[in-house]
Write a structure and sequence with these properties.
- The complex is a heterodimer of chains A (535) and B (274).
- Chain A is an all-alpha fold.
- In chain A, 65% of the residues lie in helices and 0% in strands.
- Chain A folds into two domains: 277 residues, Up-down Bundle (Cytochrome C Oxidase, Chain A); 194 residues, Cytochrome C Oxidase, Chain A, CATH 1.20.210.10.
- Chain B has 274 residues and is an all-alpha fold.
- Chain B contains seven helices and no strands.
- The chains are: A mainly alpha (535), B mainly alpha (274).
- At the A-B interface, helix 1, helix 4, helix 5, helix 6 and helix 7 of A face helix 1, helix 2, helix 3 and helix 6 of B.
- Bound molecules: copper (II) ion.
- The site of copper (II) ion (CU) has 5 residues of chain A, from helix 8.
- Copper (II) ion (CU) binds next to helix 8 of chain A.
Chain lengths: 535, 274
C-alpha cells in the first residue's frame, strides 16, 4: 500500500469540538449517519401529517375547510417529503453508519464530502417548506410533476419552480453520497476482504449507489429543462414550440423506476441481516442474493415505460416494457425464497426487529405481486391512475421500505446508542403499524378496481364507506408512530444498556464486523483494522 | 502513524492495540462542508429570486458567490494539506476514482439533454431543423472544435512534462491550453451573438433553440469551470505546491478537460453536423 518514498509529514494535533459545534463540523460517518436518521424521523412526521390532511379531506369531501387546492398541495408534498426527505435519507443514514463498520474501514472514503452530502439536504428542505408561504402555495402537480400541468400556464405560482429547484439541489446531495459510497466500498475494504465476502447490506448499498449515480442526474437534467420552460419560456416540453410532454414522462420514469429500487434495495440488504439473525442461522444463498441484487439494478433501467401504458406509446413498446417488468419478478423471487430458506429450520426469536422483518416479507410480497399484475398491459389500462396504484405503491414503499427501516432501527439501535429499544413498546408499535397498514391500504385495491381515481379531492357517494374506514385506520398508524418516537427518545437515555459488541448474540452465525466493536463504536471504529484471509 | 498495521488476526476486535493511540485515526472536524452547503443554498435562492423577477439584494448574490468560493477553496487547501501525512498513492487512487465517478454522473446530465435532442428529432419533429430555425453555420464552430481538441493534447503534454520534471515546459503547455480554451469560448460567444443578432435565433422561439442554447450553454459553463480549474493548477505550479507525488489537481483537471472536450465532440456532431 505505501510504496512511495515520500517522507510523510506528522499528523497535526487533533481538533476537538464539543456540543453543537461538534455536530455542525463533524466528519464522523457515524454521527453523520445519525443526523441523516434524525432528519428522516422529523420529516416523517411532517410527511405523515400531510397524509393525515389528505385522509381528513377524503373522510368527507363536503368538509371544505381543506380546499381542493390545499388537498393537492398536501398530496404532492406528502409524496415528495416521504420519498426525498424520509426514505432516501434514512437508507443513506443506515448506509453511512454501517457500511464503513461492515467493511472494516475507519470512515468513508471522503469524510468531508459525506458531511457536505448531509448538509446539502437542509437548504432544499427549507425551500420545500418555504414554498407553502408563496402566493398559490406549494407545488400541486404531484411528485411526477408532469407538464403541461406543471408548466407555467397551469401552475403559475412560485411553488412549482421552488419544487424543481429543491429537487435539483437534493440531487447534488444524492450524487455526492453515491460517489462516496462507491469509492468507500471499492477501495476501503479491510485488507483481504473480497467483493464476495462483503455483508449483503454493503452489496445492497453498492447497487443502490450505482442507481443513484446514473439515475439522479437524469432527473436533474429533466427538471432543469422543466424549470427553464417555466422561467425562461423555452420549449422543451411545450407542444406549441415543438416540444413534447410525453418525452418528459419518458425521462422522468427513466429516473423514476430506478428510484423505486433506490428505495427498496437497501431494505433487501437489511432483511438479509435481520431475518437470519433472529432465526439464528447464516444467510442462505449469498451468491444468488448478490446476483439477484445486481440483475434487479440492471433490469431497473429497462422497465420505465410501464408507468406510461396509457400515455400513448406504441404496442411494441408496451410489449417490451411489460416483458422486462415481468422478468424482474424472477430475481425478486430469488431473494424472497432465500430469506425464507434462511429462516427454515431455525429457532426464531420473535423480537420487534424480527416482527418487522416478517411483516416486510408478507407486505412486500403482496406489493410485488400487485406489481406483476400491473405489468400486464390490459390490467394496467383498467386500473391506471386509480387507488389500485396507490395501494400497490404503499405496499411496496410502506410495507416494504418503511417496515425494513423499522426492522433496521430495532436491530441496530443497540449498536448506535449502546442501549436497547423497549421490546414491549416495539411490540405495540409493530402491531399498530401492521394492522393499521392493512386497514388503510387493503381496501384501496377495491376502490381502485371499482374505479376511484387517485389524486382527486372528491369521489362518488358509493365510495364513502370505504373512504371513511380508511381514514379511521390512519389513527392506528398515528398511534404506532407516536409510540415509536417515544420509544426512540426514551431509550436513548433510559433503555437497557448493551455496551457489549454483540447484544443479539449472533456472532457465531453472522460475522458482520459491526458486531465486533463496542456499542457505540469509538470514533476511529477499530483499534486495529481487521484483516481477512485471502479467498 | 499514517499507514495501517496489517498484522492483526482475522477479523479482529482485539483490545490489545498495536498503535499507541488509535484515536489518531478519528476523522477531523471541518466547517467547510456546512459552509459550502449554506453557500449553495444562498446562491440558489438569489438565483431563483432574480430569475423569477424579484429584486434580489445584490448583497445576497454576492454573499452566495463568496459562500461558495471561499469554502470550496478552503476545502481544496485542506485536502492538499491532509494528503501530506497520508499515503499519497492511496489518497491519489481514491480521489481519482471519486472524481471519475463524479464525471460519469455529469455525463448522465448531458445524456438527458442528448436524449431530448435525439428523441425530438427522430421521434417527434416532422422537419429538422424545424421551420423558422436557421441552418447552423458550421465552419467557425469546426475551427473551435479543432482548437478544443488541440487543447486536450497541449494539456496532456503539460502533464507529461510535469511528470518528467520539466516544470517550465509544463507551465508553457498549460498556458497554451488556457489560451486555446479562452479562444474556444470567444468563438462560441461570437457564434451566439451572430445567431441572435442576424438569424433572430433565440432560446424561447422553439424547441431547437432551447436545445441549442442550453446544450452549448451548459457545455460553455463547464468550459468556464474547467478554465478556473486550469488557472488554479497553473497557480499551484507557479508556487511550487505540486511535485511528482502530489499533483492530484493536475490529474483531476486533465480528466475534467478531456471530459469537456469529449462532450463537445458529441455536441458538435449532434447539433451542427447531424
Ligand atoms: Cu416502475
Amino acid at each position: 500500500m505505501s510504496s512511495a518514498e515520500v517522507a510523510l509529514a506528522a499528523a497535526p494535533e487533533a481538533k476537538h469540538y464539543t456540543g453543537l459545534l461538534d455536530w455542525l463540523t463533524t466528519t464522523d460517518h457515524k454521527k453523520i449517519g445519525l443526523m441523516y436518521l434524525i432528519f428522516s424521523l422529523v420529516n416523517a412526521w411532517v410527511g405523515g401529517l400531510f397524509a393525515g390532511m389528505v385522509r381528513l379531506r377524503l373522510y368527507d369531501p363536503n368538509w371544505n375547510f381543506i380546499k381542493p387546492e390545499f388537498f393537492n398541495q398536501m398530496l404532492t408534498m406528502h409524496a415528495t417529503v416521504m420519498i426525498f426527505m424520509v426514505v432516501m435519507p434514512a437508507f443513506v443514514g443506515f448506509g453511512n453508519y454501517l457500511v464503513p463498520l461492515m467493511i472494516g474501514a475507519r470512515d468513508m472514503a471522503f469524510p468531508k464530502l459525506n458531511a457536505f452530502s448531509f448538509w446539502m439536504l437542509i437548504p432544499p428542505s427549507l425551500m420545500m417548506y418555504a414554498s407553502f408561504f408563496t402566493v398559490g402555495g406549494s407545488a400541486q402537480g404531484g411528485w411526477w410533476s408532469y407538464p403541461p400541468l406543471s408548466g407555467a400556464e397551469f401552475s403559475p405560482g412560485a411553488g412549482e419552480s421552488l419544487w424543481c429547484l429543491a429537487i435539483i439541489l437534493l440531487g447534488i446531495s444524492s450524487i455526492m453520497g453515491a460517489v462516496n459510497f462507491l469509492v468507500t466500498i471499492a477501495d476501503m475494504r479491510a485488507p483481504g476482504m473480497g467483493w464476495m465476502q462483503m455483508p449483503l447490506f454493503v452489496w445492497a448499498t453498492e447497487i443502490t449507489a450505482w442507481l443513484l449515480l446514473l439515475a439522479v442526474p437524469i432527473l436533474s437534467g429533466v427538471l432543469v429543462m422543466l424549470l427553464s420552460d417555466r422561467i425562461f419560456h423555452t420549449g422543451f416540453f411545450q407542444p406549441g414550440l415543438g416540444g413534447d410532454p410525453l418525452l418528459y414522462q419518458h425521462l422522468f420514469w427513466f429516473f423514476g423506476h430506478p428510484e423505486v429500487y433506490i428505495m427498496i434495495l437497501p431494505a433487501f440488504g437489511i432483511m438479509s441481516h435481520v431475518l437470519p439473525a433472529f432465526a439464528h442461522k447464516p444467510v442462505f444463498g449469498y451468491k444468488g442474493m448478490v446476483y439477484a441484487l445486481a440483475s434487479i439494478g440492471v433490469l431497473g433501467f429497462m422497465v420505465w415505460a410501464h408507468h406510461m401504458f396509457t400515455s400513448g406509446i406504441s404496442p411494441e413498446a408496451q410489449i417490451f416494457f411489460s416483458t422486462t417488468s415481468l422478468i424482474i419478478a424472477v430475481p425478486t423471487g430469488v431473494k424472497v425464497y432465500s430469506w425464507l430458506a434462511s429462516m427454515w429450520g431455525g429457532t426464531i426469536d420473535f423480537s420487534a426487529a424480527m416482527k418487522f422483518g416478517l411483516g416486510f416479507i408478507g407486505l412486500f410480497v403482496i406489493g410485488g405481486l400487485n406489481g406483476v399484475v400491473l405489468a400486464i398491459v390490459p390490467f394496467d389500462i383498467a386500473v391506471h391512475n386509480t387507488y389500485f396504484i396507490v395501494a400497490h405503491l404503499h405496499f411496496v414503499l410502506f410495507g416494504g421500505s418503511v417496515m425494513g427501516l423499522m426492522a433496521a432501527t430495532y436491530f441496530w439501535f443497540p449498536k448506535m446508542t449502546g442501549r436497547r429499544l423497549s421490546e414491549k413498546l416495539g411490540n405495540w408499535h409493530f402491531w399498530l403499524f401492521f394492522i393499521g397498514f392493512l386497514w388503510v391500504f387493503t381496501p384501496m385495491h377495491i376502490l381502485g378496481i371499482e374505479g376511484m381515481p387517485r389524486r382527486v379531492a372528491f369521489y362518488r357517494p358509493e365510495f364513502t364507506d370505504l373512504n371513511r374506514f380508511i381514514s379511521l385506520g390512519f389513527l392506528l398508524l398515528l398511534a404506532g408512530g407516536l409510540i415509536f418516537t417515544y420509544n426512540v427518545i426514551h431509550s436513548i437515555r433510559h433503555g437497557e444498556p448493551t455496551p457489549e459488541p454483540d447484544p443479539w448474540k449472533i456472532n457465531d452465525v453472522q460475522q458482520s464486523l459491526e458486531w465486533m466493536v463496542p456499542s457505540p463504536p469509538p470514533a476511529w471504529n477499530f483499534d486495529e483494522v481487521p484483516v481477512y484471509e485471502e479467498g | 502513524m499514517a499507514t495501517e498495521s496489517h498484522s492483526a488476526a482475522a477479523p479482529a476486535h482485539a483490545a490489545a492495540a498495536a498503535h499507541a493511540d488509535p484515536s489518531a485515526h478519528a476523522p477531523q472536524p471541518s466547517a467547510w462542508p456546512i459552509l459550502l452547503a449554506l453557500g449553495i443554498g444562498v446562491f440558489a435562492t438569489a438565483f431563483f429570486l432574480v430569475a423569477t423577477g424579484f429584486n434580489a439584494l445584490p448583497l445576497l448574490v454576492l454573499a452566495g458567490i463568496l459562500l461558495v468560493l471561499i469554502p470550496a477553496l478552503g476545502w481544496a487547501t485542506t485536502i492538499a494539506a491532509e494528503r501530506r501525512h497520508q499515503d499519497p498513492n492511496y489518497t491519489f487512487a481514491i480521489l481519482r476514482r471519486g472524481f471519475l465517478y463524479f464525471l460519469l454522473s455529469e455525463g448522465a446530465i448531458f445524456g438527458s439533454f442528448f436524449a431530448h435532442n435525439l428523441y425530438i428529432r427522430f421521434g417527434h419533429a416532422t422537419t429538422w431543423p424545424p421551420l423558422g430555425a436557421p441552418r447552423l453555420e458550421t465552419s467557425l464552430p469546426a475551427i473551435g472544435t479543432l482548437l478544443l481538441v488541440l487543447s486536450s493534447f497541449t494539456y496532456h503534454w503539460s502533464h507529461h512534462a510535469f511528470i518528467g520534471g520539466k516544470r517550465a515546459l509544463a507551465k508553457n503547455w498549460l498556458l497554451a491550453t488556457i489560451i486555446l480554451g479562452v479562444v474556444f469560448l470567444a468563438i462560441q460567444g461570437y457564434d451566439w451573438g451572430f445567431l441572435k443578432a442576424f438569424d433572430k435565433f433565440t432560446y424561447s422561439q422553439g424547441v431547437f433553440g432551447s436545445q441549442f442554447y442550453w446544450m452549448t450553454g451548459f457545455h460553455g459553463l463547464h468550459v468556464c469551470v474547467g478554465l478556473l480549474f486550469l488557472v488554479l493548477v497553473y497557480w499551484r505550479m507557479e508556487r511550487g505546491e505540486m511535485n511528482q507525488t502530489y499533483h492530484f489537481s493536475l490529474t483531476a483537471a486533465e480528466y475534467y478537460w478531456h471530459f469537456v472536450d469529449i462532450v463537445w465532440i458529441f455536441l458538435f456532431f449532434v447539433i451542427y453536423l447531424l
